[in-house]
Amino acid sequence: MKGLYFQQSSTNEKITFVFQERENLPVAEDNYVKLQVKACALSQINTKLLAEMKMEKDFFPVGREIAGIVLDVGSKVSFFQPGDEVVGILPLDSEDPGLCEVVRAHEHYLVHKPEKVTWTEAAGTVRDGVRAYTALHYLARLAPGKWVLVMDGASALGTIAIQLAHHRGARVISTAGSPEDRQYLEGLRPALARVIDVSSGKAHVAESCLEETGGLGVDIVLDAGVRLYSKDDEPAVKLQLLPHKHDILSLLGVGGHWVTTEENLQLRVLKDVMEKLATGVFRPRLAEPVALHEARAAMEAAQEGPAGKKQVVQF
After folding, report:
1. Which of 4, 121, 225, 296 has a 20 to 30 A CA-CA distance from 290?
2. Which alpha helices (DSSP H) does the chain contain, by range?
C-alpha cells in the first residue's frame, strides 16, 4: 500500500513529493481507529513550523484533512464502530499520510460525518472551518451586529469565515484579489456590505472600511497576511496586494480584534463545523476532486500558496 510523503532538500527550502510503499500497515489498538480514506484535502505545508517543533524527518507524511469509513476499532474506542462515516484532522506527529487508502487515527481527532455531507465536502471544509471558528468565535468573540473585515474572502478560509460571520448576524466587508474573486464575492448570499477590489493596487482598504462603518471602524479583522515594511522593501507582487500593518490598526474600531492567520487548530470544534456544513451554513468553495495518482502534482501546486478553491483528492 502506497502513501504520499514529502522530502525537503538540506540545501534549500524546496520540497519534493514521493509515493512510498508503506512497510507497517495501520493496526487498530487501544483508542485508535483504522480508516478507509475516501477523501483527503490538500493544504500548504508549513515546513518552518515543523522545524521549530523539531519534527523534521527524511520523509514526512502528507495529507491531514481526511474523511473515510471506519474499518476497525481498538479495544478502548468508545465513540465509533466499524462502518461509521467519519471526518477529522490527523495530528502533526501522525505517522500515517492522509493520502493513503488506509490510515490509523486516535478517536479524539475524529467526529461523525453527517449523512448528507459528501466525502469531498467534509475533507475540504474541516480545516478551514476549524480555523474560521477558532478565529471568530474563540479569539474575536463574534456577536450579532459586529462589523467584520475578512481579507481575501474568495479563498477557501475566507469563504467559510464570511459564511460563519453572516450566520452569527455580523455585517461583513471583504477584499478581492482579482476581478474574478470580486464577482464571486458579490454573488454570495447573504450579500456582503462591501467588496473592496485590491487587484489594481489603487483601493484603500482602511478608507473604504471607515466609510462603510460611518468612521467607527470594524470590530474584527481576519487577515490573510500583512506587510510589515514598505512596498519598496517587499517587492513581490503578492506582498504588495497585502495591507500594511498600520492600515489594519487604523481601520479597527475601539476595542476591536485583529486575528492574524495561524496554523494552530482547535479540534474540539470539529463537530460543530460538520453540523454547519450539513445544514448549509458552510458552503465550501471546492475545486474538482483529483484521483490519488494525481496527488503528487496537485500537492506541488498547493505549495504555491493559498488557492481560491480547496483541492481534494477523492479515493
Report:
1. 225
2. 47-52, 119-133, 156-167, 179-186, 205-212, 237-240, 245-251, 270-278, 295-302
DSSP letter at 165 equals H
**Helix, strand, or coil (residue 272):** helix
pLDDT tens readout for residues 212-264: 999 999 999 998 877 666 555 554 545 556 777 778 888 888 888 888 763 33
Contacts of 12 (CB under 8 A, 6+ apart): none
**Is the bond into 190 cis (omega within 30 degrees of 0)?**
yes
CA distance 56 to 115: 38
pTM to 2 decimals? Answer: 0.82
pLDDT digits (tens, 9 = 90+) for 88-103: 999 988 889 999 999 9
CA-CA-CA-CA torsion sign (295, 110, 125, 261): negative
